[in-house]
Specification:
Layout: H1 6-9, H2 20-23, H3 36-43, H4 53-57, H5 64-72, H6 76-84, H7 90-96, H8 100-103, H9 116-129, E1 145-149, H10 153-164, E2 168-173, H11 181-184, H12 194-205, E3 209-212, E4 214-216, E5 232-234, H13 236-241, E6 245-248, E7 254-255, E8 268-270, H14 271-283, E9 298-302, H15 306-318, E10 322-327, E11 360-363, E12 365-373, E13 376-390, E14 393-398, E15 404-407, E16 410-413, E17 417-419, H16 425-428, E18 459-461, H17 464-467, H18 472-489
Parallel strand pairs: 1-2, 1-6, 2-3, 4-5, 6-18, 8-16, 9-10, 9-16, 10-11
Antiparallel strand pairs: 7-17, 12-13, 13-14, 13-15
Length: 490
């Protein structure tokens, strides 16, 4: 513990963002970095508490006190070594993780928590700057081959650890570029795609083989397969016969839709289609379809989560006339509610950098229909709702006479995902599904999360494809756990 009184003397200081008038005119990352000295002071706030609840809350089990102490002392190499010990991709989580650890920081129980996520980002970027992050291929190959289908965070994590253990790993991706949700779901102003390419280059130098434009199965999966155009289709039999085990990490990318009057009107678009097309435009990738633009349009975003926030930021950058984000749930409290005490994750109001750039947020709003005029979308009919507890559950009821219209030329559906895409590789392998529609895994590995075995003995699954849509950091964790199980099994 570098400074035993650091948490008493130093106040929390966040990095902050570039000025709004500057950042809305480009797609560069909005978050800035503190100086090295300021970052070391923020690390000094870590209490090195006896029971580090930050470690308990982190899906990848980061050992925060260890690398925070090294950061405070200016030992960047030691900090990076301790950080990398549990997290293969801190350059991703340091940018897009909601920081479950900070909600459980012991200091946060009666003060502001340590800036763990931003400290993590500072450590990994300094490690790259100092030339510490270099290819480290395994000394020995053990002669076992694993095919990883899907190059999102879970697939990349599994490939990282399997390759380090001496397996020969080939990652198959139907899209033209690697990264999955990291590449096609998160805007560049939150995660510049050069950081994905930087990590992929290192993994390739370590011996991981990547095959893009290679779609496994008879239909789409994940991102980009719909419009991949020239993607080579690989049959499941061909894949199964070429390796010792197949690991599916294809995400849960079946979007939640609405069945409402007027849904057929043009101008109602799934959020991930909107975001991924914009990312492709920025990277110069040919999408095969016309991009969806918000320029000069009145935009309504349905869904109050992170994806909805990303739509707000992207629509503003494209030059939307107005942006309104609506959410059917009530507005969360600004402070931790009594029902979610420390160290639990509190459901509190989140205001992202995109929300600060313009637009209106409405809560407790239910969409009733879409209105078209002259063959074009013109408005959203909605109403206000009330939530009340009944028999231990919160029940929604419409407030009589509260109907109103929202002018809209473009509606973005950002309501999350229902389950894994079930056609294509899942159907071709004949895999059983669980009650939520994801790939069923069960049985042989004594782990809290169950096993990674599917109903096909040679096919395993990890990440969102078996757990349902969740956080990037949880996908990374599940990919690592799957790799550890594969090492034991093979």
């Amino acid at each position: 513990m570098g400074d035993p009184k650091g948490f008493l003397k130093i106040r929390r200081k966040v990095s902050g963002y570039r000025p709004v008038e500057e950042r809305v005119n480009d797609y560069s990352e909005v978050e800035i970095l503190l100086s090295d000295d300021e970052r070391r002071l923020q690390a000094a706030r870590c209490m090195d508490c006896g029971v580090p609840f930050c470690h308990w809350a982190c899906p990848v089990s980061n050992v925060m006190p260890e690398w925070q102490d090294r950061l405070y002392r200016g030992d960047w190499a030691g900090a990076w070594a301790a950080l990398e010990y549990m997290n293969p991709f801190p350059e991703f989580t340091g940018r897009v993780c909601p920081a479950l650890c900070e909600a459980s920081c012991v200091l946060g129980s009666n003060d502001e928590p340590v800036t763990i996520r931003q400290n993590e980002l500072a450590v990994i970027e300094k490690a790259y700057e100092l030339g510490l992050v270099v290819p480290r291929p395994p000394r020995v190959r053990i002669g076992k081959k694993v095919a990883v289908v899907g190059a999102g965070p879970a697939g990349l994590s599994a490939a990282y650890y399997l390759n380090r253990a001496g397996f020969s790993v080939t990652v198959y991706e139907g899209a033209q570029k690697l990264g999955g949700y990291l590449r096609y779901g998160i805007p560049d102003f939150k995660l510049d795609k050069s950081f994905i390419d930087r990590r992929i280059k290192i993994m390739a130098a370590e011996g991981v083989e990547f095959r893009t434009g290679a779609r496994v199965g008879s239909a789409r999966y994940g991102f980009g397969a719909k419009d991949a155009g020239g993607a080579k289709v690989i049959s499941v039999k061909e894949l199964e016969s070429s390796c010792d085990l197949v690991l599916l990490t294809i995400g849960a990318r079946e979007p939640r839709d609405v069945k409402l009057p007027g849904r057929e009107n043009p101008g109602i678009v799934q959020a991930l289609d909107f975001l991924s097309l914009q990312n492709r435009v920025l990277s110069g990738e040919k999408a095969g379809v016309e991009p969806v633009t918000a320029y000069g349009k009145r935009v309504v975003v349905i869904g109050g989560g992170d994806t909805g926030s990303d739509c707000v930021g992207t629509a503003n950058r494209q030059g939307a006339l107005t942006v309104t984000q609506i959410e059917v749930l009530p507005k969360p409290p600004e402070h931790r509610p009594d029902a979610e005490p420390w160290p639990l994750w509190p459901k509190v109001l989140k205001t992202s950098s995109s929300h600060l750039e313009g637009g209106e947020r409405l809560w407790s709003i239910n969409t009733k229909s879409f209105v078209g005029k002259g063959g074009k979308l013109s408005a959203v009919q909605a109403c206000r709702v009330d939530w009340a507890e009944k028999d231990g559950r919160f029940v929604m009821s419409e407030i009589p006479g509260s109907d109103f219209m929202l002018d809209a030329d473009l509606v973005l559906l950002a309501m999350g995902f229902t389950h894994v895409v079930q056609e294509g590789v899942v159907a071709d392998f004949g895999l059983e599904l669980d009650e939520r529609g994801n790939i069923r895994t069960s049985g042989l590995v004594d782990k809290p999360g169950g096993s990674f075995h599917t109903s096909n003995a040679k096919v395993w699954a990890a990440g969102d494809s078996r757990n349902g849509a969740s956080l990037v950091v949880r996908a990374i964790s599940d990919g690592r756990a799957a790799a550890e199980a594969i090492v034991k099994a093979l």
